[in-house]
Automatic annotation (TrEMBL):
Its EC number is 2.7.6.3. Residues 87-98 form the 7,8-dihydro-6-hydroxymethylpterin-pyrophosphokinase domain. Catalyzes the transfer of pyrophosphate from adenosine triphosphate (ATP) to 6-hydroxymethyl-7,8-dihydropterin, an enzymatic step in folate biosynthesis pathway. Transmembrane segments: none annotated. It comes from Marinomonas foliarum. This is 2-amino-4-hydroxy-6-hydroxymethyldihydropteridine pyrophosphokinase. It is an enzyme of class 2 (transferase). Keywords: ATP-binding, Folate biosynthesis, Kinase, Nucleotide-binding, Transferase. One of its GO terms (molecular function) is 2-amino-4-hydroxy-6-hydroxymethyldihydropteridine diphosphokinase activity. The keyword Metal-binding does not apply.
Length: 160
């Protein structure tokens, strides 16, 4: 199955946090053909009393089930000392499963496609680095969706 994940961080050297997570993903035997977007900076969603975020999107092929993949992503977060103090609060690492093939998943622990991805420039912009012509669930391509969003707060950080 081809999957897309969002990566984000705004604590404890965020760029190093993303680099470490990407290296961990590269070394994992169940993830093949890993590709990573450029990295972008953005203002936080939710509480503004926290540092700006950096974000990227990665894609890969996997035979892991959606929940096994979620468990893997959460174990990587935990290895980088992710603490869930408040909703949309600061974090060392956030790994969100955005898409898992064309599957629609509604479980207590997992909703795919990610319920907010179409609204977030910090997801769609890096997504467009990897799959600009992919058709999204709303019938628009990633590029078309990007043009519908305010991305004025996005700052290019680095190319992966």
């Amino acid at each position: 199955m081809h999957a897309y994940i969002g990566l984000g961080s705004n604590l404890e050297n965020p760029l190093a946090q993303l680099d470490r997570a990407i290296e961990t993903l590269k070394k994992h035997d169940d993830l093949k053909n890993l590709r990573v977007s450029s990295i972008y900076g953005s203002k936080p969603v939710g509480p503004q009393d926290q540092p700006d975020y950096i974000n990227a999107v990665a894609s890969f092929d996997t035979d892991l089930s959606p929940l096994a993949l979620l468990d893997l992503l959460q174990s990587i977060e935990q290895s980088q000392r992710r603490v869930r103090e408040r909703h949309w609060g600061p974090r060392t690492l956030d790994l969100d499963l955005l898409l898992y093939g064309q599957e629609r998943i509604q479980l207590p622990r997992l909703n795919v496609p990610h319920p907010f991805m179409l609204e977030r420039g910090f997801v769609i912009k890096p997504f467009s680095d990897l799959a600009p012509d992919m058709l999204l669930e709303n019938g628009k391509t990633v590029t078309e969706q990007l043009h519908q969003l305010d991305t004025s707060d996005l700052v290019f950080i680095k190319e992966e």
